[in-house]
Amino acid sequence: MPDRFRRLHLLVEGQTEEAVVIEVLRPHLEHAGWAVTFSIITTRRPARGPAHRGGLATWGKLQREIRLLLRDSSIGILTTLVDFYGLPEDCPGMADRPAHGAYERVAHVEAAMAREIDDRRFLPNVVLHEFEAWVFAAGAQLADLRGDPSLAARLAEEVARAGAPELINEGPATAPSKRLMAVCPDYAKTVEGPLAVAALGVEALRARCPHVHDWLLALDA
């Protein structure tokens, strides 16, 4: 467990991930002793007006933001909440990632990102394969929120076919978000997803998603 009030900053990909931090992760991490702050990745800084935030186009932009945040000595740990699906191909480790094994592939990329940044305070976290995998883990809770008991069974079938929520793959037509929209076309991503995962709870999420568990275990150390 970290020292009380040690600061943890989460750099997140977009508004959905921001909502997940607020609804799910921040309460858990604060209970574990972290002082939690977060920000959405800046995608464009116009000469005038506010910066544009959300999405991830290149490693260069993400790297610059990581290094800028690490200039703040009050940050004890900087971690990320970005999707493996759609991760820019120029990210460290993407070009030579293993051909098979989802957990091995994402661990390879995270290790390469850590080597590139080369700061002991940086703990990269890349979500397998995107946030909606967590929603599949919370299929029963999403069904309850929507008042649709049959939805839980349909989502459970997708998880069973893949083998686990985090193993629902990253194809353009088969990524978790695509499969979720196929069975639930009016799914409200930034609202229903975070609420469903919050209803599931962090401990149940960890039990169903080993990569989430390993990430939180590293933060608990």
Structural notes for this entry:
This protein is of the alpha/beta class and 221 residues long. It folds into two domains: 6-130 and 200-220, 3-Layer(aba) Sandwich (Rossmann fold); 132-188, no CATH class. Helix content is 50%, strand content 14%. It contains ten helices and seven strands. Strands 1, 2, 5, 6 and 7 form a five-stranded parallel beta sheet that branches. A two-stranded antiparallel sheet has the order 3-4. Strand 3 (42-44) and strand 4 form a beta hairpin. The termini are close together. Residues 44-53 have low confidence and may be disordered.
Which descriptors apply to this entry?
five-stranded parallel beta sheet; single chain; two-stranded antiparallel sheet; alpha/beta; 221 residues; DUF4276; 10 helices; Rossmann fold; 2 domains
